[in-house]
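User: I'm new to structure prediction. If I give you an amino acid sequence, what do you actually give back? Let's try with this one:
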Amino acid sequence: MNILLTGHRGFIGSSLLKALTLNHTVTGIDLVDGVDLLTCDFPNEDFDLIIHLAGKSGVRESIKDPAAYWMNNVEASRRLFDRYENTRILYASSSSAYEPDLNPYAASKYILEELASRYPNTLGMRFHTVYSNTPRKDMFLDKLHKNKLEYVTRHYRDFVHLLDVIDAINILIECDYVKGVLDIGSGVPVKVQDLAPSVPVRLNTRGERFYTCANLEKMKALGYKPKYSIEKYLTTAKKGVIINLFNGETV
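Assistant: Good question. You get back a string of structure tokens that encode the predicted 3D arrangement of the chain. For your 251 residues, that looks like this:
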């Protein structure tokens, strides 16, 4: 299959690229390489599938600069959808879209889903809290590993391992009849405070959802079975065990 992957240099995209190239021909475009989806000339070739991961993420940064989230998550996606309107598109959404009133990031993902619904061959992937053995810099797990976590919250989060996300995307690649929007997570909410019980608790965190849990009914019907748990991952990580991306042990 000939695939266009946007955001192939990002946290999810860089690992997905490695997985996809085992069985597919992949063209990657990313802002890191100077390719801005708001202004670029898209590749002039026929693709069998578009996987659209490019965009801005993060609640706090969106509160500081909401316009950037609108432009990068909505308007850039609109350009892509228009350019490849006859091609199947899997695009990255977020569990934040369930409560779009909480912050500009959530709003941009909700509006992205509304926009995509006008295009008949799209599928939104509502990623929950994705983690891996190489966590996003300066985010929760990265700070936890480095003992730099300033505080935790009483929120519940559905943590899903990057390898499970890649498994889910590979399933969806083969299920070209699935449309609309669906959740990708572990289906098991975990209290953030329990992951670092010795760290101080902050009660007021602006714009964040209190409880997230993926509804996996649709994904499980397609054969998706999450293999990883955040608790076991953290226990294993403390022992210095590194998960190999394609041939690692289950945690």
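You can read the tokens as a compact description of the fold. Here is one thing that stands out. The first strand starts at residue 2 and ends at 6.
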